[in-house]
Amino acid sequence: MKRDRARRGPFGGPLAQLIRAARPPRLLLSAAAASSVLAVASTLAFPMLTKQVVDQIPGGGVQAQNIALLALALTGAALASALTAYLLSRVGYGVVANLRRLLVRKVVGLPIAAFDRSSSGDWVSRVLNDCQSISDLVTREAINLLTSALLLAGSITVLFLLDLRLTLMLLGSLGAAFLLVIPLGMLLEGLARGTQDRTARLGGILTHVFAEIRLVKAFTAEAREHGRSDEEIEGIRRIGLRQARINVWIEPLMTLALMAAVIAILVYGATRVSRGDITIGTLTAFVLYILNVATPVVQLTHFTAEFHKAKGASTRIAALLQEPAEDDGQGSDASQRERGDLVFRDVSFAYPGGEEMPVLRGIDLVFRPGTTTALVGASGNGKTTILSLIERFYRPSGGAIEYDGEPIERFSLGSWRGRIGYVAQGAPVMPGSVRDNITYGLSGQYSDAMVWAAAERAGAAGFIERMPEGLDTALIEQGNNLSGGQRQRIAIARMFLRNPDILILDEATSALDSETEHQVKLALAELMKGRTNIVVAHSLTTVMQADCIYFLEGGRISGMGNHEELNRTHPYYARLVARYFQKLPEPVAVEAPAEWVGSAGG
């Protein structure tokens, strides 16, 4: 255990793993380090060159060569520093891009259950803010650490060579300040982690609010959302103030230590100059080297704060990267299978954390090719869960789901979901053009004629033609420049191009007017031919046409059969049918009071 902790050290663990995963280009980093070393060398040379110039002044002549060397040192330090900054910028942008690509691929590849546990704002904060913290540490702060260490070591070495007593006085002052600063720096680590956590929660709240702004305004919930965001904003403010109070002590302590050292060295140095122990040039060089010591000390203090910040970010990113990805099965290609029965065998399911309240309880279902199967039941009885299990968004808690006699978990996710077409009730729209949405997720090239044909069959061509740019018209976030019916017809057009084996229709015609619904149903009737069709609908006119109907109650199948069979044998289903067609018993006639007679105007 001790050996493991020693191996990880302060720079090991998740942070080191992420830095390796970001693949910073070694050539550019080496060039930046070399440039930084050149800048340090020029900076170290400057005080010594100044010493020579100052010592030459009493003699009455300053050599032009020394002035030229002094100017060369200043110019070299400036140019080398500029080159270092440019190289680090290139490295930094590359590192943050690599980290973000890695995280985006990881997040998109997570199972649906992971998104049930965390808000989208948390994922966004990890990809944007945390990656930037690590990038800053790897590039700018890492080189600053190298530069500071070299400059500090070089300056102290030269100071020892110049004068041992003055150097010990300087190091004593700085050492006393560091003993006070180190505990404060440790406090900053916890505060930095708290700031990042609060920022992530605020991002989650704002993401939800902005995505559902119509809901917020429709229910006048602005005050509620103000309160939720204000709580996180206030938390960030309080943590920031605590950080500021600590930083207020750190910088003055270091400044006071340096100023005390400078004053003491000037007084003591002037005394030694007057005695002839050292020259005025040596004292001048010593004071200049103090500045070379002060800059690295400040940079090291800043590095410590950034290191703790990146360390906290790396812990969260490492936890995200350890999330198990979706199970891609054994790689079997589902597209090579013949169309077969999709069968649920004694399937049970409970959502994570709700094992004591299973949604499905040992159900058996059969979906056959060339037939339409409807799932009916009150909300919350498991219809949507069944669809999610078919899509492999979740895995059953018990039992098995088979396709053509083979467990669906053995198929690769891409090939399995490629056989499924899903028209959801909300018909989500992605930002992009109409064409992008109709061809969304489809491989291959589709000509305008093919896209228009699919739109025509879905009843979408008419309104697309009236759009400003036709198929190239941009659709905004959530398709807010489309009606609900238009969004659904675009989703149905996508199904014509996808040509799936298993077609899932989740309230696919619920948002259409009567005329459009009739047209889309005709198109769907053509699309459904020869496929395994699974329908969830509250409209009994849709359900009645199904070859088989499963009625779900309390997570179990309480009845199955076609419309006529269920209407005869299932009381609940019969009541739904009676209400739908208004076949409830006629109300008992009641004689009107005498005073009402003749008051209706004849």
UniProtKB/TrEMBL annotation:
For the keyword Transcription, the answer is no
Q: Where in the cell is it found?
A: Cell membrane
Position of the signal peptide: none
Is Magnesium among this UniProt entry's keywords?
no
Which residue ranges traverse the bilayer? 27-47, 67-88, 142-162, 168-188, 246-268, 280-301
Q: How does the record say this protein sits in the membrane?
A: Multi-pass membrane protein
Q: Which keywords label this protein?
A: ATP-binding, Membrane, Nucleotide-binding, Transmembrane, Transmembrane helix
Question: InterPro entries per the record?
Answer: AAA+_ATPase, ABC1_TM_dom, ABC1_TM_sf, ABC_transporter-like_ATP-bd, ABC_transporter-like_CS, P-loop_NTPase, Type_1_exporter
Q: Give the domain of life.
A: Bacteria
Where is the ABC transporter domain positioned along the sequence? 342-579
Per the record, its GO cellular-component terms are: plasma membrane
Q: Which GO terms describe its molecular function?
A: ABC-type oligopeptide transporter activity; ATP binding; ATP hydrolysis activity
Q: Which residues form the ABC transmembrane type-1 domain?
A: 31-309
| Protein known as | ABC transporter/permease/ATP-binding protein
What is the scientific name of the source organism?
Lysobacter sp. ATCC 53042
